[in-house]
Design brief:
Helices cover about 40% and strands about 15% of the residues. It is built from 2 helices and 3 strands. A hairpin with a 4-residue loop joins strand 2 and strand 3. It is globular.
Length: about 80
Amino acid sequence: MCQARLKKNREIRARKRLARTGYGLLKNRSKDELAEGYRGHRLFDRVVNAIVSGAVPYKYCLSLDDVDALIQEKNNTIGHE
């Protein structure tokens, strides 16, 4: 399978995992490769419609690795309550 398809599958899985916990994933739609946050992501809370992560130091600053780490952190936090 090509790298682009693997990345897309990973993004879809992340979106589904976040949706189950009440969060959403936004992707930067910029076509400009030099733009800050190109191909970046950010998390938002679906209930209050607010950005949770990925807005500082610039918009869409999370990579898919960062998103996976945040999901894992949230799962660990929920499991220890």
